[in-house]
Each structure stands twice: as C-alpha cells, then as structure tokens.
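Need tokens for this chain, all 254 residues.
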Amino acid sequence: MKTKIVLTFLTLLLLETLSLARAGILTGPVTNPANGHIYFLLSSNTWTGSEAEAVGLGGHLVTVSDSDENHWVFTNFTTFGGVQRPLWIGLYQPNGSVEPASGWSWISGESVNYTNWTTGEPNNNTNHGPQNWAMIWPPDLAGRASPYQAEHWNDYWNTDHVLDSGLTNLHWGMYGVVEIVPPVPRLTISRQPLGVGLSWDSQTNRTYQMQYLSDLSTNDWTNLGLSVPGNGTTNSITDPIIDPRRYYRIAPFP
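Here are the structure tokens for all 254 residues:
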C-alpha cells in the first residue's frame, strides 16, 4: 500500500538576514503560534518612521487579520515592560481618501477584512493635522485620553507620542509593532528503503527541528530525533516509521 504523506504546516524563522541594529527594538522576535509570523515591538516613533524601520527589518507594521490576532497583539505588546503603550498598526489612509472612513488600507497590501474601531472613530480630528494612521489603545488610559476604548483602534496624527486634546500628561509614546511573514522553505518528502526521507533548504547559523503528528485534529507535535544544524544547502533526515501516516513540519529550535 502506497504511503500517503501530507504536508500541512511549515514554520521557519529566518532572521539572520535582518539588520536589527537599524531599528530601536524593545522586544522581539516574538512568534505568534497561531500563524507562525514574527513580531517586534519598536521604540517610540511616528507611524511613517515606524513603518520605515519595519521595512528595514524585512516586514511591515502589523496587519491585524482578525479578533484573535488583535487580542494577541494587544496582550503581548500594549503593557510591555509595565508601561502603557499605544501601538501603531499598518492601517493607513492614502492621500485623497474621502474623510473620515474611506480608503483605509493595510500597508502590506492585504485586504481589509477586519476592523476594531473605537466608538465614533475614525473621525479625522484635525487639531494637529490629518489623522490618516491607525493605532490600538492600551489597557489603562481611561480618563487620560479621549476617545478611548482599550484594545480598540483610533485614527491618529503622525506623531511619536499621544497628543489627545485636553491631555495634561504627554509621556505616552507611540510604538510600532512589526510583523514579518517568514519565507516557506522547499520541503521534499519521499519514501526510502529505511523509512520516510525529508529534506529542506537550510541556512547556516540556524538550527532546525523536524516535528510530526498523527492526528490533524490535535496540535500535539512531537520532535523527530535531535535538532539539526543548518549547513547552508540541503538538510536531510529520515523517519524510520512509514505506517501509520504522519504529518510533518519544520519548526525553529529552540
């Protein structure tokens, strides 16, 4: 009986090529287990400055695809280091858009299928210029920023700190969240005399871990042998188990 091998999921961190010194990174890389994407939290900067740093790192300001990702970003970054941190996201309004609600686009080019605006937003308050850039409110600015709803979005000025009218304490910065989508390596799976052979493109200075599971209804991945150092060409490993069927992925290690 011919063995069926199904490749359902690949995650791989390829960070050696990132010029980390080009950006003021507060934390990262942090991997979101739900999508395998890599995130960084930047130091306080304008939206345009933060996006330029994100591009230098190989990504863009975060594209928030759904409520789960919105909550993950909010939970992981808005109180990093015990500081309330309003977050820049990659949603912006191109020049010429009809204010306040038309034209909003992700800088990554992805479609806008999810939004989480604060009640009454976007409103394009022009006290300090146009509000063409989106941010997420942190948990605890109630009474100190208006309009305010924790975890919700607001259109904002291109500034590196909170400028809300009537606010007396302006020490809250504006912090960009970078999202990087890792490239997927070529993975070849074949049946061999001694088992199932797996090979993939690798990079030096990286360590890889092959993992498998037997039931796609679970997320209980098991390491397949020892971790494998990258060699800059093609790495290979053999799984001596042919039956029952297994599902494989490449995971970063450690």
